[in-house]
Amino acid sequence: MDNKRKLNWGIIGVGNIAVTMAEALRISPVNHLFAVASKTSSKARKFAQKYDVENILSYQEIVSSKNIDIIYIATTHNFHYSNAKLALENGKHVLVEKPFTVNAKEAQELALIAEDKNLFLMEAMWTRFLPSVKLLKKKIMNNEIGKVKQINISFGGVAGKKYKKRLEDPSLAGGVTLDLGIYAISFACYMLGELPVKIKSMARFNELGADEISNYMFMFPSGCLTSVCTSYNLKMTNEATIYGTKGYITFPDFSAGQRFTIFNHGGTNNIKDVKEFTGENHENGFIYQVEEVAQCIQEGKLESNIIPLKETIAIMEVMDKMRREWGFVYPFE
Question: Cα dist. 268→65, 151, 265, 275, 329 in Å?
Answer without folding.
Answer: 62, 19, 5, 17, 47
